[in-house]
Task: inverse folding
């Protein structure tokens, strides 16, 4: 399906404005991803120049935005979701009390905001739209919104609240047999458990995330969960640390990311390779991979990823004895994390910077 969407989005990107979309474009696009429930108007036989309905235009922009997000092209994704909102102005004009389509597009835009580091704005959007989803007809959408709200708590360092929310949301999604969403939030929950030092439980949860994604044939989510598993293995106790299985996992995910064109995933692979080589003592190679990850994160405005990479790169330089190179990296990381409320990375950057200041060797 992703290949059909990609091909369709190439057609869609050549359309100059929503007003110029016609039935001929529709035939090239709708088979790829248009949900039947938004075609509210009756089907009629007409000439090929009949324009899209407002709901169709909005949903096509939305789906192209989803593809851009999955590939890691966040500026494109955010712009496309904005165009989807604009296309909905006549169909659902009340932005303060969004209808079902506007709420779904807002949900997708909030997810992009999280990746771009607009964590507070994403949290506010999610809090606004959650009440618009009913407990019955829109239960999955509501749970997904609540799951990403839990992620904002997680990134902001409110681990207790995030953990409580993850556990209940994953349980409900599994009951609904929504394997993709359940896998995504299981992956985030495993990341949280790892950060809290509960490695054994984190390994069990990430294994569940991989299995859920595999059952639903969600390969992009499965590979992201494998990266979370690799991160746990990198931080395993010394007597259990084995680099070879980790390398093979990273090789597999990198091949997938390259074939599918997902720079966001490639950046995470590079970041984990940096951590793995740092753990193994090869600091020069670790620094090289940290630079690669940082370059991709900067190019695609992956601010959460960038903040982590800056802290990682500074920690590698510190181990290499390049203390003077650390301060600008950490100051940039602090600036990003203050703006984004990404307090987990903020605390790490502060700790390294205070260490530099105590040593008296920084400028």
Result:
């Amino acid at each position: 399906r992703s290949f059909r969407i990609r091909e369709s989005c190439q057609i869609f990107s050549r359309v100059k404005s929503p007003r110029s979309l016609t039935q001929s474009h529709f035939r090239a696009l709708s088979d790829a991803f248009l949900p039947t429930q938004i075609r509210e108007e009756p089907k009629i036989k007409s000439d090929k120049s009949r324009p899209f309905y407002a709901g169709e235009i909005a949903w096509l922009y939305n789906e192209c935005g989803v593809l851009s997000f999955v590939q890691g092209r966040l500026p494109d994704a955010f712009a496309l979701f904005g165009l989807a909102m604009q296309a909905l102005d006549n169909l659902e004009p009340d932005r303060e009390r969004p209808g079902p389509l506007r709420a779904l597009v807002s949900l997708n835009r909030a997810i992009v905001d999280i990746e771009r580091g607009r964590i507070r704005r994403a949290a506010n959007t999610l809090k606004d739209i959650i009440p618009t989803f009913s407990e019955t007809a829109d239960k999955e959408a509501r749970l997904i919104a609540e799951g990403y709200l839990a992620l904002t708590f997680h990134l902001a360092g409110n681990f207790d609240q995030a953990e409580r929310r993850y556990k209940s949301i994953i349980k409900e999604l599994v009951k609904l047999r929504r394997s993709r969403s359940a896998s995504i939030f299981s992956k985030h929950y495993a990341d949280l458990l790892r950060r809290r030092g509960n490695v054994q439980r984190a390994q069990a949860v990430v294994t569940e995330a991989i299995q859920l994604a595999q059952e639903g044939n969600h390969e992009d989510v499965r590979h992201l969960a494998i990266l979370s598993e690799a991160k746990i293995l990198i931080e395993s106790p010394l007597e259990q640390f084995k680099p070879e299985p980790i390398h093979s996992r990273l090789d597999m995910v990198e091949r997938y990311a390259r074939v599918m064109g997902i720079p966001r995933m490639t950046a995470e692979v590079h970041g984990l390779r940096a951590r793995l080589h740092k753990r193994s003592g090869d600091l020069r190679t670790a620094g090289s991979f940290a630079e690669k990850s940082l370059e991709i994160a900067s190019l695609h405005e992956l601010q959460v990823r960038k903040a982590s990479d800056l802290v990682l790169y500074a920690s590698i330089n510190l181990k290499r004895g390049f203390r003077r190179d650390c301060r600008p990296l950490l100051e940039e990381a602090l600036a990003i994390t203050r703006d984004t409320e990404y307090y987990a990375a903020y605390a790490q950057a502060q700790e390294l910077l205070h260490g530099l200041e105590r040593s008296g060797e920084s400028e």
